[in-house]
Amino acid sequence: MAKTPSDHLLYSLEELVPYDFEKFKFKLQNTSLEKEHPRIPRGQLQTARPVKLATLLLSHYGEKYAMQLTLQILKAINQHLLAEELQRAIGPGRPQDEAVCPLCHAQEGDPVGGTCVHDSCSCSVASRDPKASGGCLPKCLRCQVSLSRKSSGSLEQREGLQMASLSPQALPQCKRHMKQVQLLFCEDHGEPICLICSLSQEHRGHQVRPIEEAALEYKKQIQKQLEHLKELKKSGEEQRSQGNKNTSNYLKQTEIQKQRVRYQLEQLCQFLEQQERLFVAWLEELGQTIGQVRETYDTQVSRDIALLNKLIEELEAKQCLPEWELMQDIGVTLHRARTVTVPEPWATPLEVKEKIHLLHQKSEFVEKSMKHFSETLRSEMETFNAGSTHQSRERLRCLGGIGLYPSRGIKVLSTGVLVFPGCGDQGRFSRLSGNAQDFPPSSPFLCSSRTDSRSGTCC
C-alpha cells in the first residue's frame, strides 16, 4: 500500500532526534505564516510528540501547506537530507525552469521556498528587473547572488548548493587549499578537511566522511552526554535535597536535646534548692532540740547550784556566831549539808545523739555524692572537647533512655531520679529525713535504702 503525504510527514518528524525535534517546534512557533492560517497554540505545541505534531499540522494548515511548512523548517534547522527525502516522496521535485538561490535554496515563484529561512540570508527571490539585478538573470534581494536555472547549472553551482545546505553561515574554507570548502571530517585528526586534503598523504588511510554525517553523529553523542549530565545534575540535586533534609533533621534533634538538657538542669537546680531548704530546716530543727535540752539542763544545774550557795552561806554564817548560838540546830544544819545532792553531770539525750549521728552520715553522703556527680559530669562533658564521635553518640543515646552516665554507674530514670553506684536498683536520692524509709522516691538526692551507720554507705 502506497504511503500518503501524511505518512511521509510523520516519518520525517519521527526521524528527528529529540534536540532537533525541539528546534523544529521552536521554528514552527516563530515562523511567519500566511494570513489565512491560524497558529498552533503554544501549549499544544510544547507538549506534542511526532504523531500529535503531525496531526496538528494537518488539522491547522491542511496537507499541502503542512508539507510546504515542514520542508521550510527542515531546511531551517539544517535537516536537508530529510527535506530532500520528503520532497522526493511528495512530488517530482522543483520545476527545472525555476531559479534557485545557491545559499538559501529559495526558488523563484515558490510561496514557501521563496522566503529564506536562514539567518544569514533571509532573502526573497527578486524579479528579473535589469535595474535591480544588473543583468538578465534574477538576483536574491538579500544576498545579491545571481540566480541560475537548474537546467543550465554547472557542477560547481550544484556543489555550492550542497555546501550551502550544511550551515546557515558561510562555510569555512581550507587554509591550505584556497577556495576549497571543508566538506569532510577526519575522524583520526578530529578536524574538518577539504576534498584535496582527504587525498593527501597526511590523511591517507584515515577514516573520512561527510561533515554533515559526522555532525549528525556527534549531535547524537552530545545529546547522549547532555542526558547523562542532566541525570547527574538531577542526582546531585536529589542528594543535596536529601542532605538538607538530614541536616534540618539533625538541627531539629539538636534543638530538642538542648531544650531537654536545659529543662533537666533547671529541674535539677530547683530540686537542689528544695533539698537545701529541707536540709537547712532539718538543721534548724536539730538546733532547736539541742537548745531545749541545754536550757533544761541549765535550769536544773542552776537550781542545784543555788541550793549549794544557800547552804554555803548558812555554814559560813554559823562559823561567825557565838558558841551558844552556834550549837542551836547544828544537827539539822549539818544533816542538810551532808545530804545535799551533787549536780548531775551533762548527759546528751539519746534522741540528740541519734540525730547528730544521722547528720554526720547524711552530710558525708551528700558530700561524696555531689563530688562524685560533679566529677562524672565534668568527665562526660570533656568528651566534647576530645572529639570522640563514638563516645558522644553513646552519651546522647543514654540521654534519651534510662541512663545518663552508664560508664560511671549513674542512672537517670524516666522520672528524673538520679541513682548513684552502690545504691542498688532500688536506691534513689531522696530528701533528708529522720527515717530513710520515709524519703519520697521523687527526690533524686539521698539514697532511699537503709544506710550503714558505720560506713555511711547504702546497703
From TrEMBL:
InterPro entries according to UniProt: DAPIN (IPR004020), DEATH-like_dom_sf (IPR011029), TRIM/RBCC (IPR050143), Znf_B-box (IPR000315)
Main location: other
GO biological process: inflammatory response; innate immune response; positive regulation of interleukin-1 beta production; regulation of inflammatory response
B box-type domain ranges (all copies): 169-211
Keyword set, alphabetical order: Actin-binding, Cell projection, Coiled coil, Cytoplasm, Cytoplasmic vesicle, Cytoskeleton, Immunity, Inflammatory response, Innate immunity, Metal-binding, Microtubule, Nucleus, Phosphoprotein, Zinc, Zinc-finger
Superkingdom: Eukaryota
A GO molecular function held by the record: zinc ion binding
GO cellular component term of the entry, any: nucleus
Residues in Pyrin domain copies: 1-92
Subcellular compartments: Cell projection, Lamellipodium; Cell projection, Ruffle; Cytoplasm, Cytoskeleton; Cytoplasmic vesicle, Autophagosome
Gene3D superfamilies, per database record: Classic Zinc Finger, Death Domain, Fas
Record's subunit section: Homotrimer. Interacts (via the B box-type zinc finger) with PSTPIP1. Interacts (via the B30.2/SPRY domain) with several components of the inflammasome complex, including CASP1 p20 and p10 subunits, CASP5, PYCARD, NLRP1, NLRP2 and NLRP3, as well as with unprocessed IL1B; this interaction may lead to autophagic degradation of these proteins. Component of the AIM2 PANoptosome complex, a multiprotein complex that drives inflammatory cell death (PANoptosis). Interacts with NFKBIA and RELA. Interacts weakly with VASP and ACTR3.
Protein name: Pyrin
